[in-house]
Design goal:
With 384 residues, the chain is of the alpha/beta class. Helix 1 packs parallel to helix 2 and helix 10 runs antiparallel to helix 11. The protein has 2 domains: 250 residues, TIM Barrel (Alpha-Beta Barrel), CATH 3.20.20; 115 residues, no CATH class. The strands form 2 sheets. The chain has a 5-stranded mixed beta sheet. The protein has a 3-stranded parallel beta sheet with strand order 1-2-3. 43% of the residues lie in helices and 10% in strands. It contains 14 helices and 8 strands.
Length: 384
Protein backbone atom coordinates (compact mmCIF):
# COMPACT_ATOMS: atom_id res chain seq x y z
CA UNK A 1 0.00 0.00 0.00
CA UNK A 2 1.38 3.41 -1.00
CA UNK A 3 0.83 6.53 1.06
CA UNK A 4 2.20 10.08 0.97
CA UNK A 5 1.79 12.30 4.02
CA UNK A 6 0.63 15.60 2.56
CA UNK A 7 0.31 17.64 5.76
CA UNK A 8 3.55 17.88 7.73
CA UNK A 9 4.37 20.91 9.84
CA UNK A 10 8.06 21.38 10.58
CA UNK A 11 9.66 23.51 13.28
CA UNK A 12 9.85 26.29 10.69
CA UNK A 13 6.22 26.92 11.71
CA UNK A 14 7.48 28.72 14.78
CA UNK A 15 6.14 27.33 18.09
CA UNK A 16 3.86 24.85 16.29
CA UNK A 17 5.94 22.10 14.72
CA UNK A 18 8.12 20.11 17.08
CA UNK A 19 10.35 18.18 14.65
CA UNK A 20 12.95 19.21 12.11
CA UNK A 21 12.74 18.32 8.44
CA UNK A 22 15.69 15.98 8.89
CA UNK A 23 13.85 14.08 11.64
CA UNK A 24 10.62 13.88 9.65
CA UNK A 25 12.25 12.49 6.52
CA UNK A 26 14.53 10.10 8.40
CA UNK A 27 11.56 8.62 10.26
CA UNK A 28 9.48 8.46 7.07
CA UNK A 29 12.20 6.33 5.50
CA UNK A 30 12.03 3.81 8.34
CA UNK A 31 8.25 3.31 8.20
CA UNK A 32 7.78 3.08 4.45
CA UNK A 33 6.08 6.37 3.58
CA UNK A 34 6.46 7.24 -0.10
CA UNK A 35 6.96 10.96 0.42
CA UNK A 36 6.25 14.00 2.57
CA UNK A 37 4.81 17.42 1.87
CA UNK A 38 6.11 20.14 4.17
CA UNK A 39 3.26 22.63 4.60
CA UNK A 40 4.38 25.24 7.09
CA UNK A 41 1.95 28.04 7.88
CA UNK A 42 2.03 30.88 5.36
CA UNK A 43 5.65 30.07 4.69
CA UNK A 44 8.03 28.14 2.45
CA UNK A 45 10.86 28.52 4.95
CA UNK A 46 11.29 24.79 5.55
CA UNK A 47 11.40 23.49 2.01
CA UNK A 48 15.15 23.94 1.44
CA UNK A 49 16.01 21.83 4.49
CA UNK A 50 13.31 19.38 3.44
CA UNK A 51 14.80 19.19 -0.05
CA UNK A 52 18.22 18.37 1.39
CA UNK A 53 16.73 15.77 3.76
CA UNK A 54 14.83 14.18 0.87
CA UNK A 55 18.07 13.71 -1.06
CA UNK A 56 19.76 12.09 1.92
CA UNK A 57 16.92 9.69 2.72
CA UNK A 58 15.58 9.00 -0.75
CA UNK A 59 12.07 10.01 0.33
CA UNK A 60 10.32 12.27 -2.13
CA UNK A 61 9.61 15.83 -1.03
CA UNK A 62 6.52 17.67 -2.23
CA UNK A 63 6.64 21.45 -2.01
CA UNK A 64 3.61 22.88 -0.24
CA UNK A 65 2.29 25.49 2.13
CA UNK A 66 -0.63 25.96 4.50
CA UNK A 67 -2.53 29.19 3.94
CA UNK A 68 -4.55 30.61 6.83
CA UNK A 69 -6.82 33.29 5.38
CA UNK A 70 -8.24 36.28 7.25
CA UNK A 71 -11.78 34.85 7.11
CA UNK A 72 -10.70 31.74 9.04
CA UNK A 73 -10.44 29.44 6.02
CA UNK A 74 -7.38 27.17 5.97
CA UNK A 75 -6.10 25.32 2.95
CA UNK A 76 -3.07 23.39 1.77
CA UNK A 77 -1.59 24.35 -1.58
CA UNK A 78 0.93 22.49 -3.72
CA UNK A 79 2.51 23.92 -6.90
CA UNK A 80 2.35 21.50 -9.81
CA UNK A 81 5.14 23.15 -11.80
CA UNK A 82 7.74 25.89 -11.63
CA UNK A 83 5.37 28.63 -12.81
CA UNK A 84 2.88 27.70 -10.08
CA UNK A 85 5.70 27.79 -7.52
CA UNK A 86 6.57 31.33 -8.65
CA UNK A 87 2.95 32.38 -8.25
CA UNK A 88 2.83 30.86 -4.77
CA UNK A 89 5.93 32.85 -3.81
CA UNK A 90 4.31 36.04 -5.09
CA UNK A 91 1.14 35.25 -3.15
CA UNK A 92 3.08 34.86 0.08
CA UNK A 93 5.00 38.06 -0.64
CA UNK A 94 1.71 39.92 -1.02
CA UNK A 95 0.48 38.58 2.33
CA UNK A 96 3.75 39.28 4.16
CA UNK A 97 3.96 42.83 2.81
CA UNK A 98 0.38 43.49 3.81
CA UNK A 99 0.68 41.94 7.27
CA UNK A 100 4.08 43.20 8.37
CA UNK A 101 6.58 41.36 10.54
CA UNK A 102 5.66 37.77 11.48
CA UNK A 103 2.21 38.10 9.89
CA UNK A 104 0.62 37.15 6.59
CA UNK A 105 -2.68 38.72 5.61
CA UNK A 106 -4.33 36.93 2.69
CA UNK A 107 -7.88 36.92 1.40
CA UNK A 108 -9.68 34.47 -0.85
CA UNK A 109 -9.42 36.79 -3.87
CA UNK A 110 -5.64 36.81 -3.45
CA UNK A 111 -5.59 33.01 -3.65
CA UNK A 112 -7.71 33.08 -6.80
CA UNK A 113 -5.45 35.65 -8.43
CA UNK A 114 -2.32 33.55 -7.93
CA UNK A 115 -3.93 30.11 -7.86
CA UNK A 116 -3.25 28.92 -11.40
CA UNK A 117 -1.36 25.62 -11.32
CA UNK A 118 -1.85 25.13 -7.57
CA UNK A 119 -3.57 22.10 -6.08
CA UNK A 120 -5.77 23.29 -3.20
CA UNK A 121 -6.91 21.12 -0.28
CA UNK A 122 -9.49 22.52 2.12
CA UNK A 123 -8.72 21.89 5.81
CA UNK A 124 -12.20 21.62 7.37
CA UNK A 125 -13.37 21.44 10.95
CA UNK A 126 -17.02 20.42 11.03
CA UNK A 127 -19.38 19.60 8.16
CA UNK A 128 -21.47 22.74 8.70
CA UNK A 129 -22.76 25.58 6.55
CA UNK A 130 -19.49 27.47 6.74
CA UNK A 131 -17.60 24.42 5.51
CA UNK A 132 -20.11 23.97 2.68
CA UNK A 133 -19.65 27.59 1.58
CA UNK A 134 -15.87 27.28 1.59
CA UNK A 135 -15.97 23.96 -0.24
CA UNK A 136 -18.21 25.37 -2.97
CA UNK A 137 -15.92 28.36 -3.31
CA UNK A 138 -12.91 26.06 -3.62
CA UNK A 139 -14.63 23.84 -6.19
CA UNK A 140 -15.64 26.85 -8.30
CA UNK A 141 -12.18 28.39 -8.15
CA UNK A 142 -9.96 25.33 -8.61
CA UNK A 143 -12.06 22.75 -10.45
CA UNK A 144 -10.34 19.36 -10.59
CA UNK A 145 -7.47 20.78 -8.54
CA UNK A 146 -9.73 21.11 -5.48
CA UNK A 147 -9.69 18.51 -2.69
CA UNK A 148 -10.84 18.25 0.90
CA UNK A 149 -8.69 16.82 3.70
CA UNK A 150 -10.00 14.09 5.98
CA UNK A 151 -8.15 14.12 9.29
CA UNK A 152 -9.02 12.39 12.54
CA UNK A 153 -9.28 14.68 15.57
CA UNK A 154 -9.72 11.90 18.16
CA UNK A 155 -12.81 13.54 19.61
CA UNK A 156 -16.34 12.19 20.21
CA UNK A 157 -18.20 11.22 17.01
CA UNK A 158 -15.00 11.52 14.97
CA UNK A 159 -16.01 8.81 12.50
CA UNK A 160 -19.41 10.46 12.05
CA UNK A 161 -17.63 13.74 11.33
CA UNK A 162 -15.49 12.05 8.67
CA UNK A 163 -18.62 10.49 7.17
CA UNK A 164 -20.43 13.85 7.01
CA UNK A 165 -17.40 15.57 5.45
CA UNK A 166 -17.12 12.82 2.82
CA UNK A 167 -20.78 13.19 1.92
CA UNK A 168 -20.44 16.95 1.66
CA UNK A 169 -17.41 16.60 -0.62
CA UNK A 170 -19.33 14.18 -2.83
CA UNK A 171 -22.20 16.66 -3.07
CA UNK A 172 -19.89 19.31 -4.43
CA UNK A 173 -17.96 16.77 -6.55
CA UNK A 174 -14.73 17.40 -4.67
CA UNK A 175 -12.39 14.49 -4.01
CA UNK A 176 -11.23 13.73 -0.48
CA UNK A 177 -7.69 12.99 0.63
CA UNK A 178 -6.50 11.52 3.93
CA UNK A 179 -3.92 13.37 6.02
CA UNK A 180 -2.62 13.02 9.56
CA UNK A 181 -1.85 16.72 10.14
CA UNK A 182 1.61 15.84 11.45
CA UNK A 183 3.28 18.07 14.06
CA UNK A 184 6.13 15.75 15.12
CA UNK A 185 7.85 12.68 13.76
CA UNK A 186 7.33 10.21 16.63
CA UNK A 187 5.03 9.91 19.69
CA UNK A 188 7.70 10.84 22.27
CA UNK A 189 8.07 14.28 20.70
CA UNK A 190 4.59 15.15 21.97
CA UNK A 191 6.15 16.51 25.19
CA UNK A 192 8.19 19.09 23.30
CA UNK A 193 5.13 20.00 21.24
CA UNK A 194 3.27 20.75 24.48
CA UNK A 195 6.13 22.97 25.60
CA UNK A 196 6.15 25.08 22.41
CA UNK A 197 2.35 25.34 22.64
CA UNK A 198 2.72 26.81 26.14
CA UNK A 199 5.32 29.28 24.91
CA UNK A 200 3.10 30.31 22.01
CA UNK A 201 0.17 30.95 24.35
CA UNK A 202 2.23 32.55 27.12
CA UNK A 203 1.22 30.06 29.79
CA UNK A 204 2.53 27.07 31.71
CA UNK A 205 1.95 23.36 31.25
CA UNK A 206 -0.33 23.38 34.31
CA UNK A 207 -2.63 26.02 32.86
CA UNK A 208 -2.53 25.39 29.11
CA UNK A 209 -5.68 23.24 29.26
CA UNK A 210 -7.38 22.43 25.97
CA UNK A 211 -5.06 24.70 24.05
CA UNK A 212 -2.60 21.81 23.91
CA UNK A 213 -3.18 18.99 21.47
CA UNK A 214 -5.82 16.69 22.88
CA UNK A 215 -4.14 13.52 21.63
CA UNK A 216 -0.65 12.30 20.81
CA UNK A 217 -1.62 11.01 17.39
CA UNK A 218 -0.12 13.74 15.24
CA UNK A 219 3.01 11.85 14.29
CA UNK A 220 4.02 10.02 11.12
CA UNK A 221 2.28 6.69 10.58
CA UNK A 222 3.06 3.89 8.14
CA UNK A 223 0.76 3.34 5.15
CA UNK A 224 -0.85 0.26 6.71
CA UNK A 225 -1.82 2.22 9.81
CA UNK A 226 -3.36 5.00 7.73
CA UNK A 227 -5.38 2.39 5.88
CA UNK A 228 -6.61 1.01 9.20
CA UNK A 229 -7.59 4.46 10.45
CA UNK A 230 -9.68 5.16 7.34
CA UNK A 231 -11.41 1.81 6.65
CA UNK A 232 -14.40 3.48 4.98
CA UNK A 233 -12.30 5.87 2.91
CA UNK A 234 -9.59 3.79 1.18
CA UNK A 235 -9.84 6.02 -1.89
CA UNK A 236 -8.87 9.05 0.24
CA UNK A 237 -5.72 7.26 1.37
CA UNK A 238 -4.87 6.19 -2.18
CA UNK A 239 -5.49 9.69 -3.48
CA UNK A 240 -2.36 10.94 -1.71
CA UNK A 241 -0.38 9.14 -4.40
CA UNK A 242 -2.49 10.77 -7.10
CA UNK A 243 -1.79 14.26 -5.76
CA UNK A 244 1.91 13.51 -5.40
CA UNK A 245 2.01 12.42 -9.05
CA UNK A 246 0.43 15.71 -10.14
CA UNK A 247 3.02 17.76 -8.25
CA UNK A 248 5.99 17.50 -10.59
CA UNK A 249 7.81 20.60 -9.36
CA UNK A 250 11.18 20.15 -7.67
CA UNK A 251 13.62 22.66 -6.21
CA UNK A 252 16.20 21.12 -8.52
CA UNK A 253 14.55 23.13 -11.31
CA UNK A 254 15.64 26.39 -9.69
CA UNK A 255 18.90 28.15 -10.41
CA UNK A 256 20.25 31.58 -9.61
CA UNK A 257 18.65 34.19 -11.87
CA UNK A 258 20.07 37.68 -11.93
CA UNK A 259 17.46 40.47 -11.77
CA UNK A 260 16.51 41.83 -15.17
CA UNK A 261 18.15 45.10 -16.20
CA UNK A 262 16.24 47.21 -18.75
CA UNK A 263 18.36 50.34 -19.19
CA UNK A 264 17.46 50.76 -22.87
CA UNK A 265 13.87 49.89 -23.83
CA UNK A 266 13.67 47.79 -26.95
CA UNK A 267 17.13 46.30 -26.51
CA UNK A 268 18.16 43.10 -24.76
CA UNK A 269 20.69 43.47 -21.90
CA UNK A 270 23.44 42.16 -24.20
CA UNK A 271 22.55 44.65 -26.94
CA UNK A 272 22.47 47.49 -24.42
CA UNK A 273 25.89 46.54 -23.06
CA UNK A 274 27.37 46.39 -26.54
CA UNK A 275 25.89 49.77 -27.40
CA UNK A 276 27.39 51.31 -24.26
CA UNK A 277 30.74 49.65 -24.91
CA UNK A 278 31.14 50.67 -28.53
CA UNK A 279 29.79 54.13 -27.75
CA UNK A 280 32.41 54.52 -25.03
CA UNK A 281 35.12 53.41 -27.43
CA UNK A 282 34.52 56.49 -29.61
CA UNK A 283 35.09 58.80 -26.65
CA UNK A 284 38.20 57.01 -25.43
CA UNK A 285 39.81 56.52 -28.83
CA UNK A 286 38.93 59.54 -30.99
CA UNK A 287 41.85 58.73 -33.28
CA UNK A 288 40.79 55.13 -33.83
CA UNK A 289 40.52 51.87 -31.89
CA UNK A 290 43.76 49.83 -31.59
CA UNK A 291 43.51 46.31 -32.99
CA UNK A 292 44.62 44.80 -29.66
CA UNK A 293 41.79 46.50 -27.74
CA UNK A 294 39.20 45.60 -30.38
CA UNK A 295 40.25 41.96 -30.18
CA UNK A 296 39.85 42.03 -26.39
CA UNK A 297 36.44 43.67 -26.61
CA UNK A 298 35.15 41.17 -29.18
CA UNK A 299 36.36 38.29 -27.03
CA UNK A 300 34.86 39.66 -23.80
CA UNK A 301 31.49 40.59 -25.25
CA UNK A 302 31.17 37.11 -26.75
CA UNK A 303 32.09 35.55 -23.40
CA UNK A 304 29.64 37.78 -21.51
CA UNK A 305 26.88 36.84 -23.94
CA UNK A 306 27.60 33.12 -23.56
CA UNK A 307 27.55 33.33 -19.76
CA UNK A 308 24.54 35.64 -19.60
CA UNK A 309 26.41 38.26 -17.53
CA UNK A 310 25.23 41.37 -19.41
CA UNK A 311 22.62 42.37 -16.76
CA UNK A 312 25.32 42.29 -14.08
CA UNK A 313 27.59 44.68 -15.99
CA UNK A 314 24.62 46.96 -16.68
CA UNK A 315 24.03 47.11 -12.93
CA UNK A 316 27.66 48.13 -12.42
CA UNK A 317 27.24 50.83 -15.04
CA UNK A 318 24.05 52.13 -13.41
CA UNK A 319 25.69 52.35 -9.98
CA UNK A 320 28.72 54.18 -11.39
CA UNK A 321 26.60 56.66 -13.35
CA UNK A 322 24.53 57.38 -10.24
CA UNK A 323 27.66 57.91 -8.12
CA UNK A 324 29.19 60.27 -10.65
CA UNK A 325 25.94 62.22 -10.99
CA UNK A 326 26.17 62.94 -7.25
CA UNK A 327 29.94 63.58 -7.36
CA UNK A 328 30.58 60.52 -5.21
CA UNK A 329 34.08 59.07 -5.41
CA UNK A 330 33.85 55.92 -7.52
CA UNK A 331 36.47 53.24 -8.03
CA UNK A 332 36.03 49.73 -9.36
CA UNK A 333 37.72 46.77 -7.72
CA UNK A 334 37.96 43.06 -8.33
CA UNK A 335 38.34 41.20 -11.61
CA UNK A 336 34.78 42.07 -12.62
CA UNK A 337 35.76 45.75 -12.80
CA UNK A 338 38.95 45.40 -14.87
CA UNK A 339 37.87 44.03 -18.28
CA UNK A 340 38.04 46.45 -21.25
CA UNK A 341 34.29 46.03 -21.77
CA UNK A 342 33.73 47.58 -18.33
CA UNK A 343 36.07 50.52 -18.81
CA UNK A 344 34.83 51.21 -22.35
CA UNK A 345 31.19 51.28 -21.21
CA UNK A 346 32.05 54.05 -18.73
CA UNK A 347 32.09 51.98 -15.56
CA UNK A 348 35.80 52.62 -14.97
CA UNK A 349 38.09 55.51 -15.85
CA UNK A 350 41.28 53.60 -16.64
CA UNK A 351 42.41 52.98 -20.19
CA UNK A 352 41.06 49.68 -21.61
CA UNK A 353 44.41 48.71 -23.11
CA UNK A 354 45.95 48.81 -19.64
CA UNK A 355 43.43 46.41 -18.15
CA UNK A 356 43.31 42.65 -18.02
CA UNK A 357 40.89 40.84 -20.30
CA UNK A 358 38.28 38.44 -18.95
CA UNK A 359 39.66 34.92 -19.05
CA UNK A 360 37.30 32.27 -20.38
CA UNK A 361 39.37 29.70 -18.49
CA UNK A 362 38.62 31.35 -15.15
CA UNK A 363 34.96 32.13 -15.90
CA UNK A 364 32.29 29.60 -14.95
CA UNK A 365 30.79 27.65 -17.84
CA UNK A 366 27.34 27.54 -16.34
CA UNK A 367 25.31 30.47 -17.62
CA UNK A 368 23.04 30.22 -14.58
CA UNK A 369 25.88 31.10 -12.22
CA UNK A 370 26.61 34.69 -11.29
CA UNK A 371 29.69 36.94 -11.08
CA UNK A 372 31.16 36.90 -7.60
CA UNK A 373 33.56 39.84 -7.81
CA UNK A 374 32.67 43.10 -6.11
CA UNK A 375 31.26 45.38 -8.76
CA UNK A 376 32.38 48.79 -7.52
CA UNK A 377 33.27 50.44 -4.27
CA UNK A 378 30.83 53.23 -5.06
CA UNK A 379 27.98 50.99 -3.85
CA UNK A 380 28.47 51.90 -0.19
CA UNK A 381 29.00 55.54 -1.03
CA UNK A 382 25.85 55.57 -3.15
CA UNK A 383 23.88 54.23 -0.19
CA UNK A 384 25.08 57.15 1.92
Amino acid sequence: MSYFELQCTSHFSFLRGASSCEELFAHAATIGIGGLAIVDRNSLAGIVRAHEAAKVTGIRMIVGCRLDLVDGMSMLVYPTDRAAYARLCRLLSVGKKRGGKAKCVLEWLDVLEYGEGLIAVLVPDEADEICALRLKRLADGFGDRAYMALTLRRRPNDQLRIHDLSNMAARFRVSTVATNDVLFHEPHRRILQDVVTCIRNGTTIDHVGFRRERHADRYLKPPEEMGRLFPRNPEAVARTTEIAARCTFSLDELAYQYPEERTMPGLTPQQALEKLTWGGVKDRYPEGLPDEVKEKLDHELALIERLGYAPYFLTVNSIVRFARSREILCQGRGSAATPPSVTSSGSRRSTPSATTSCSSASSPRNAASRPTSTSTSSTNAAKR
